[in-house]
Specification:
26% strand, 3-stranded antiparallel β-sheet, alpha+beta, 237 residues, 5 helices
Length: 237
Amino acid sequence: MPADQSWLAEGEAARAAGMRFTKRRTEYLLRRWAAKHAVAAATGRPADPPALLARIEVRNAVTGAPLVWVDGLRTGLGISLTDRAGWAVCLVSGRSGPVGCDLELVEPRSAGFVRDFLTDAEQALVAAAGSAQLRDELANLVWSAKESALKVLRTGLRRDTRSVEVRLTEPASTVGSWSALVVRTAEGRELPGWWCRHGPFVLTVAYDAPARPPVSLEEPVALSSAEPVHSWVDRPV
């Protein structure tokens, strides 16, 4: 991100200035930076110089879901934002229906985590993995897909994560390619989605209706060579 904040809308700059902790402020800015570039690319708007991005503003609905405004007017785009370990992803949809995305590190998850946040069927999926490496991937994949689905439902983690269940509907594709999944809610609703692995990261998306896998707005995909970054650790405030 640029050192200056000329690319922020007035409301975004004010919100960032009110954030005391570096981690929270950095993640907020990172998500906005990714979202503005994604919206600009998806709509054919210039992103350089960065000050032009101030015309794109990401606000939040009362549910916390992100909304896109351009030149002071609400757009019909659906978007979802996620960040993890110094990297951010924005999913942009041409329709206004809810979408969700989530980025996670493939890292060890404790038995307590799996027991407390995953359903019985999901726990069995993780337990059946043939190696610790695969168990870590599956645990984080399932968790990520839940996060994506809960964004579609507009509840986030206010809802019990065991009230949605992730099912992998086809074998994993090659690294960087999308594989299908579905998330079933306790009420019987099914949310289709996709997932892919990029190095140490797993990325998931979910929709409220059948949709094709996402298409990258950049080539090559930066996430394909991404390494985790924790730039805020040395200056927490």
